[in-house]
Amino acid sequence: MTRMDADDEIPLTGGRQTSGIVRVGDTVRRPMGPRSPFVHELLRYLETVGFGAAPRVLGVDGRGREILTFVEGRVFHEYGEYRLSDAQLANAAALIRRFHDATEGSRLAAGAEIVAHNELGPHNAVFIGDEPVSFIDWDDAAPGTRLFDFANAVWSFADVGEGGGPVEEQARRVRLMCDAYGWDDPREVVDEIHADLRRALVNHEQAGRRGPARVFREMVRWISAHAEELKANANI
């Protein structure tokens, strides 16, 4: 690969992604982390089994950064500035199902149900029109369960929460994604969203992170007040 100067580097900013990420030509350079070996093995495995909606690992550059393929398209970075279409939601859910199916029973799942991405959402998906063409930012990927990974994705993609509009509409989006994934009972997904937000709140409180704890306390307050209504409307 041709060596490029720093002037050729274009910072990639926005969303909740890892800092220090730059684009160099048709590649992305990212800082290596403690989980990079697992992530690289996962991305190579996905390439081997024909799952095309993930970056490809190209190696490590002279500055010790991982080199991945750059995926053209749109990433929705800022919550509140977008509302995904029904087609985008359904296609994202179907792609999540394909990813989960691809890792089920694999060595990388290490006895768990699947390998979970653990941070799926519009901020970590590249869209071209209504089609999600790639999931990105795989740093938190690890053995996990379908329910946790899918519920976390539904919470983010379907914009479940105080700023997500009428509860009936949020429930409709939850049901839409469940149908596209093939998840029979949306109530399980809502319950998992509720449980995950409570776990996140406890973690932030125990770690003394006052700002995030305040944010998650409000999220838990909202979902606690509306979970039953969400489940009732999503199960119609």
From TrEMBL:
Keyword ATP-binding: no
The keyword Transferase is assigned to this record: yes
Short name of one Pfam family: APH
Keywords, alphabetical: Transferase
Domain of life the protein comes from: Bacteria
Every Aminoglycoside phosphotransferase domain range: 110-175
GO molecular function: transferase activity
Protein name: Phosphotransferase
Organism lineage string: Bacteria, Bacillati, Actinomycetota, Rubrobacteria, Rubrobacterales
